[in-house]
Amino acid sequence: MTDHTARLDHVVLWVSDPVAAADFYEQAVGLEPLRVAEFKDGSVSFPSVRIDEGTILDLAPVSMAPRMTMLPGADRSAGRPVNHVCLALTEDGYDSLRARLEERDVPVSDHGRHSYGARGPAVRSFYFTDPDGNVFEARYYEEG
After folding, report:
1. Where does the VOC domain start and stop, copy by copy (predicted)?
2. Where do runs of H (alpha helix) occur along the chain?
């Protein structure tokens, strides 16, 4: 197998309310919130949530879009949808996530089977959206 030294560091999601989004990702999805207090006190521009030791989701307020000047047109990126972000979990984590979402009346798709991803075909998967309409897939692979 090829040695892939590049890793996914973060994905930036445009959200209407970063604090509410961080709460959703903590309570419903089970991710660790980062820098929420600092965002609330104005010392950072946005909070984040941790997916794993090397990957986070940044929860950028849509109001920040006009300040995106790193590339021509970057300020118009707010509202440009990413198709979806996929979270790979253990089977127990997958079942727990689905249960938490259903407890909160978050609509979830039917279970898919054998959809292809970074580690080959997943055993099962499903989709859900966050309160801002960002689409997520959750999946698990064979252990071992």
Report:
1. 7-141
2. 18-24, 36-40, 91-103
Percent of the chain having pLDDT more than 90? Answer: 64
Q: Which residues pair with 137 in a beta bridge?
A: 86, 127
As for how many domains the chain has, the answer is 1
Domain with residue 39: its CATH number is 3.10.180.10
Q: What does pTM read for this prediction?
A: 0.80
